Amino acid sequence: MKIDSYYRQKWSLAGVDPNIIEKTFGEWFETNSKDSINQLINCPAELTDDGSTTLLTYIEMQRIRVPRQAGRYG
């Protein structure tokens, strides 16, 4: 299943990027998640509570980002 512009916010106000959700995932969330994944692989004993939270949130967000999965809750 594929949905074009899945995260595009067509209703956003003028001057607000309608793709802000996907850009935020790419620029901030996925970068922080990568750091947490690397920490888990390289030295799991040093994974902080914040790192664990980021990692678990990332896993859940990946699950619900799939249109078919999101459709089950919508």
What does this molecule look like?
With 74 residues, the protein is an all-alpha fold. The chain contains 3 helices and no strands. The protein has helices spanning 20-42, 49-64, 67-71. α1 crosses α2. The chain is elongated, with a radius of gyration of 15 Å. The protein starts with 19 loop residues before the first helix and ends with a helix. The mean pLDDT is 80.
Class inferred from helices and paired strands:
mainly alpha
- First and last CA, distance: 15 Å
**What is the tally of helical segments?**
3
Low-confidence stretches: none
Order of helices and strands: HHH
Main β sheet profile: none
Shape: elongated
Helix fraction by DSSP (H/I, runs of at least 4): 55-70%
Number of strands: 0
* Rg for CA atoms: 15 Å
Chain-averaged pLDDT: 80
Strand content: under 5%
Keywords:
74 residues
Helix and strand topology:
Blueprint: H1 20-42, H2 49-64, H3 67-71
Helix pairs in contact: 1-2
Summarize the structure.
This protein is mainly alpha-helical and about 70 residues long. It has helices at about 20-40, 50-65, 65-70.
